[in-house]
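User: Fold both of these, please.

Assistant: Here is the first one.
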Amino acid sequence: MSTFPLYTAPVAPRTWDVPSFGAARFSWEYDDGRERLLALYQKGKDKQWDAGTRIDWSLDVPYGRPLGLPDESVALFGTAVWDKMNDRQRDEVRRHLASWQFSQFLHGEQGAMICSARIVESVPDLDAKFYATTQTIDEARHVEVYSRFLHEKLGLVYPINDHLKALLDQTLSDSRWDIPYLGMQVLIEGLALAAFGVLRDLTPLPLPKQVLAYVMQDEARHVAFGRLALRDYYRQLSDAERAEREEFAAEGCYLMYERINGAEVWATLGLDIAESTELVKRSDYMRMFQTLLFSRIVPCMRDIGLWGPTIRDAYEKLGVLEMANVDLGALMAADERSADDLDRERERVRAEAGLAARRAEVAATIAGADGTAGAADPDARLEVLHSLPDVPAQASI
């Protein structure tokens, strides 16, 4: 990992301390817990992976196109501001936007790591504590992955966005044990999962695709965990208590919606912030991206029982209410398959390369035998070559 990353703003010499309220809860009931939650816990154990070996860090990332996205994905594209830029300046815009986006992913993952550790401490049910321990490990791995990508491949790191920081503050400082679930598992993780998915599907570059797909495979389990735990709990609450959670979620969604205008990037590059953020609002790509960001959150909120007038009104104002009809289970299943498909493809490529090397070795051995021991039986040579297995045809991905 690089020892000299470029931070766009000085890193504070002290930690950011969020006061913690609420109780650390122990459970002395060691009976079997909820079957589906324990199955998720087992899956969390089975699906652990090593970021240093599963991801191919030898792959290059182009300096000016680190995600390989089309220029239409840049909100400034097609405007007078973009037209005035030369190629080098456009490369910097693309690099800074990718760095800003992945930096927020990084900071969000650290927040998720802290929140999942908090859930282990505060949730009353032992089965939920079990699963949250596996998530804490997952989130630590995600911090490792995004930090390494930013340091080694982009060489540029942005500070945490103020809106994301505010939501983390509200999530961690609340004394109610379910709020870390709601703020992190549903809102922050749900939004991040949707953003990861858009970029995973758009990027043609193998390294960012691997990073996003493998992280998403874990995150699909995390959102499922939040759904299972909160759905059971929110059934027991009064209408007033559910309305309080809706207020929290609505405010969090407004914060997250507003944070994606990239103001920090425009300021760092010396562009006019007001003009640039206005161009973001007008961008067809950004409007599509903003809508897709809620594809996981909205159906999840309905599923866990927070579907009163407050939250529905918020989603109608944001223009994402129709997302309630999205099949969340199908999305999560597809997220998991995508990572498995990448693994199968990499294994196929490795097998093909290994077989090619073996064929070359056998051919060289035969050629050497021809030169040192006289002419060998040509039929015998063909038999050796043909005995090597064929590489299976590539599976449809």
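And the second sequence with its predicted structure:
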Amino acid sequence: MITREDYLSGQVLLIDKPLNWTSFQVVNKLRWEIRQAFDIKKIKVGHAGTLDPLATGLLVICTGKMTKQIDTFQGQVKEYTGTMVLGSTTPSYDLETEINETFSTTHITEASILDTTKQFIGDIQQYPPVFSALKKDGKRLYEFARAGETVEIKPRTVAISEFEITKIDGLNIDFRVVCSKGTYIRSLANDFGKALNSGAHLSALRRTKIGDFDVDEAISIESFIRALSLE
């Protein structure tokens, strides 16, 4: 049983983030529930690495004094599974925005798909999506994008240690990626399409690991709330 004092002194909570929730919404929800359950006026709650609203999976939530460990957790290696669709792109590189371009896929073979993954192993240069929460000149990049404004984005170096194609179903490509902090899987999907002389966008994404933390150990928001009511 986790007590009031436990939450204040610091806890690490593993949450399986549902689809269409922002990471910020999860943090706010858990903070409110903890405050209500234990009549706490103020408590620090934060997450160790954002997940996009259209992504599900592992969200590491820290409370109390454990929030000091957030930077450490954020810097750890992450694993994702997902699906990308070949032959079309979107401005956001995922399904947040509608398809804006389509490309031929007749030249793409299973062998070329498997071979192309090799280009992305190791340290690579990657451009973050314009539809992202990164800041430039005090504004989030997605604010520029939604306003139709063009903004210069600089590439960053990220490390990918594993990139495995797990299933090929027509134009739908399932994959598993192990990567460093700061890697955008949406950008990886977009770049993968370009490398195949076509296009691609992300249609599903799930974070499965952060360091030694595994999504199999995570619980839903509903389960967390139920557990709180029993404490």
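The first strand starts at residue 12 and ends at 17.
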